[in-house]
What does this fold into?
Amino acid sequence: MILTEENKADGFHTPRGYRTLQHRQVTESMEDYMEMICRYALLDGFVRISTLADKLNVKPSSASKMVKILKEMELVDFERYGFVKPSQKGWTLGNYLLYRHEILHRFFCMINESTNELEQTEQVEHYINETTVRNIERFLSAMEP
It folds into this structure.
């Protein structure tokens, strides 16, 4: 979009500004945690704080703080020194986050003729809305053999 006097004030915001406009309660970091919690819960039924911290490359104290916030938001069930499991509400969010991640990863691999576009997927996934994700899925279905 070319900046003109007519559109100068239209729609330009920081990522945080867009999140505020959309009244999003769940931040990008919370999404990353929920995605990883659900990824492990699908395998083992739970994840430990130490594993979560290791997989997200954060300190265990940071992971513990975030899990407490997610518990307050009723997205996870957690007992101190225990297991972290998605709540029903957490599974609803987490299943979408895993779906979004998989669709975007497939898309970036396709257009970049690659087999691993994890970094790009992780950087972009928080900024694409559900309608766009579903449209990308339709595009992939039409393009893939």
